[in-house]
């Protein structure tokens, strides 16, 4: 497949940098954020941090990143929402490697702020069409058999600002409503067995204990398939902003359903038609009708570097990096184009390749100062192909807000600067 | 013989005690924890469930006993809601618009309000009782909630101002956009025919829009 890609706009030598002969080697002018090195710290001098003792253990009992990484933070777009308590911020995916999102960088979306739940007073109630209505403490939940699973969580509105055109100039702002962590917790199928779900139960209302009382209906098939009540993320207790002490995990489905601070699961025979699943997370089409219960997050990918925040700093050898994911299962393949989609090359995808979890891809390339239009296109194990924005607009128009999983384009200019652009 | 009788009596006494312990447990808890697969958690009492089971379904299931009309709701709305949503439900700043927007869903700029978009009146009750006023969740009484919902529905002319909204009637209110929603999910859509193109693809590659020129991206620091 890669052998067929030797058309004019895409040279195999450029893309397969490892074996290429030409190396530019000429650095572009330092861009914003780059710091000039201090010659006194460079060979043959002894750097300033070497002669003296550093701080001892426990200087930071809970470790924090280097002060030189202070730019790697969640960011929000203030004008998007009316208040910080009902708002969203974005994961700095452009600054991360691998597939695991550090807990402190997982994007936040709250509808009534972060409640301060006292774990000793936390309760999960099971009621409705069950043989036994039950109440669990957090300790009860931790005594159930445990599962440990990696899953991405993506907000259905990730990329929602980009339906009509390129609007936000950042990888973080256009793709950052996603994170990927390892959850430890209880399978809901086990909790269902404990309560004895009646055959007439077809829907589950999951409800949070926050000031929004966030509630969503989940079909029983999904609940029994792979949903979890998680109490840990990446090995430690859930962060308060991620639902401490327990949250619902709905693998592959839109983040709004992953009820945080979960306090209740009600089993019923019909959907509950809560505010979020009627007036909000529904997708308005051109004819004025809206799609409802569009739960799956379809396959998507993004080049995280180069990207609007990650300019190309030097000519010659470079590394393209990106993330791909699918709510339907595993990522099978990711293709990359540097000419706006005319020609594609298959990127290297790195293991572990897990279902409904972020997958990392990379591609070495050479850059000599030419303009690039960088895109990526994910395919999942069901054969689903990440669509173009034109294809989605043709089906859905531009007013649906949610579920924009289209291919984005980063324009790399001759200076190495990168911009979010729309092609047409 | 004597010994045997004594043993039997002891055994008999023991089983009676055991039975009464079990019965006590059944009486108090309804079912033995040991009968459950894991024996975890405790049985919820009716009182516990009723305090938390606040959801209301489209058919009115779950609607608490109570009632109110728009006339009664006007004062509460003005006091508790209008600061964010505006006197006429028009929405202040970026707070949600509650009324109007009818017929706008096919326009370039759809206005999705309770009146123009929400499919069920029950949703307004469910949401307002659990989450409103913003930052004062579950502070309205049931009657006040019916009154406010009636007021909001009346703002979009869905019910008249004297209509008594109650646990009996909330499931019967017809919303203008009730038939405006499509299920099931028709995706996947927007898929290429055959295998995805790998070379010399027919795609537009001219830059027609730049996020930078729109200039709404926050500055980094």
Which terms summarize this structure?
heterodimer; A: 424 residues; mainly beta; Immunoglobulin-like; Sulfite Oxidase, Chain A, domain 2; 2 domains; 5-stranded mixed beta sheet; 5-stranded antiparallel beta sheet; 7 helices; 10% helix; globular; B: 221 residues; mainly alpha; Cytochrome Bc1 Complex, Chain D, domain 2; two-stranded antiparallel ribbon; 5 strands; extended; disordered N terminus
- What sort of overall outline of chain B do the alpha carbons produce when their principal axes are compared? extended
State the CATH class of the largest domain in chain B: Mainly Alpha
Kindly state the percentage of residues in helix of chain B. Answer: 25-40%
Number of helical runs of chain A?
7
The strands making up the biggest β-sheet of chain B line up spatially as 2-3
Number of helices of chain B: 7
Q: Residue-averaged pLDDT of chain B, rounded?
A: 89
Largest sheet of chain B: 2 strands, antiparallel
- What is the architecture of the largest domain in chain B at the second tier of CATH? Orthogonal Bundle
Helix % of chain A is 10-25%
What does the oligomeric state look like here? Answer: heterodimer
**Kindly state the mean pLDDT of chain A as a whole number?**
93
The overall strand count of chain B is 5
Question: What structural class do you assign from the helix and strand content of chain B?
Answer: mainly alpha
Walk across the major sheet of chain A and give the strand order.
Answer: 5-4-13-8-9
Global shape of chain A: globular
**Helices and strands of chain B, in N-to-C order?**
HEHEHHHHEEEH
């Amino acid at each position: 497949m890669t052998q067929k890609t030797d058309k004019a706009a895409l040279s195999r030598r450029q893309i397969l940098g490892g074996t290429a002969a030409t190396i530019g080697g000429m650095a572009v002018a330092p861009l914003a954020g780059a710091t000039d090195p201090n010659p006194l710290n460079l060979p043959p001098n002894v750097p300033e941090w070497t002669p003296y003792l550093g701080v001892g253990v426990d200087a930071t009992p809970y470790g924090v990143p280097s002060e030189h990484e202070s730019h790697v933070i969640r960011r929000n777009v203030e004008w998007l929402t009316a208040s910080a308590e009902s708002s969203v911020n974005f994961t700095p995916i452009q600054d991360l490697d691998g597939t695991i999102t550090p807990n402190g960088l997982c994007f936040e979306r709250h509808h009534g702020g972060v409640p301060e739940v006292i774990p000793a007073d936390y309760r999960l109630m099971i009621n409705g069409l069950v043989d036994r209505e039950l109440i669990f403490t957090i300790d009860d939940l931790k005594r159930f058999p445990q599962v440990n699973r990696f899953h991405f969580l993506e907000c259905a509105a990730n990329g929602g600002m980009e339906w009509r055109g390129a609007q936000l100039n950042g990888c973080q702002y256009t793709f950052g409503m996603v994170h990927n962590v390892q959850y430890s917790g209880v399978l809901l199928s086990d909790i269902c067995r404990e309560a004895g779900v009646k055959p007439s139960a077809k829907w589950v209302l999951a409800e949070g204990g926050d000031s929004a009382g966030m509630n969503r209906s989940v079909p029983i098939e999904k609940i029994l398939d792979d949903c979890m009540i998680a109490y840990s993320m990446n090995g430690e207790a859930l962060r308060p902003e991620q639902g401490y002490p327990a949250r619902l995990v709905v693998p592959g489905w839109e983040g709004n359903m992953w009820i945080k601070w979960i306090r209740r699961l009600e089993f019923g025979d019909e959907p509950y038609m809560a505010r979020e699943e009627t007036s909000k997370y529904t997708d308005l089409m051109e004819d004025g009708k809206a799609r409802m219960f569009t739960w799956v997050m379809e396959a998507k990918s993004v080049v995280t570097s180069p990207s609007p925040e990650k300019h190309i700093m030097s000519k010659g050898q470079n590394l393209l990096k990106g993330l791909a994911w699918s709510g339907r299962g595993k990522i099978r393949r990711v293709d990359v184009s540097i000419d706006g989609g005319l020609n594609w090359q298959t990127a290297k995808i790195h293991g572990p390749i897990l279902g409904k979890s972020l997958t990392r891809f990379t591609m070495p390339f050479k850059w000599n100062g030419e303009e690039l239009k960088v895109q990526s296109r994910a395919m999942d194990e069901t054969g689903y192909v990440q669509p173009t924005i034109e294809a989605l607009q043709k089906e859905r128009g531009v007013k649906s807000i949610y579920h924009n999983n289209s291919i984005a384009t980063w324009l790399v200019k001759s200076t190495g600067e990168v911009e979010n652009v729309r092609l047409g | 013989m004597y010994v045997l009788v004594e043993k039997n009596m002891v055994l008999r006494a023991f089983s009676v005690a055991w039975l009464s312990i079990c019965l006590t447990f059944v009486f108090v808890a309804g079912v033995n924890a040991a009968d459950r697969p894991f024996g975890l958690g405790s049985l919820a009492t009716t009182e516990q469930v009723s305090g938390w089971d606040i959801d209301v379904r489209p058919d009115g299931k779950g609607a608490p006993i109570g009632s109110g009309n728009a006339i009664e709701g006007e004062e509460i709305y003005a006091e508790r809601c209008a600061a964010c949503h505006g006197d006429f439900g028009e929405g202040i700043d970026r707070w949600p618009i509650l009324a109007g927007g009818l017929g706008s869903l096919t326009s370039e700029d759809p206005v999705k309000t309770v009146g123009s978009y929400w499919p069920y009146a029950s949703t307004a009750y469910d949401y307002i009782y659990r989450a409103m006023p913003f930052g004062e969740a579950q502070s309205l009484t049931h009657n006040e909630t019916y009154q406010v919902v009636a007021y909001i529905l009346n703002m979009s002319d869905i019910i008249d101002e004297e209509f008594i909204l109650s646990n009996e009637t909330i499931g019967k209110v017809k919303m203008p956009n009730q038939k405006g929603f499509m299920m099931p999910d028709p995706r996947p859509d927007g898929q290429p025919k055959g295998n995805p193109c790998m070379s010399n693809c027919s795609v537009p590659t001219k830059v027609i829009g730049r996020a930078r020129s729109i200039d709404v991206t926050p500055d980094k620091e």
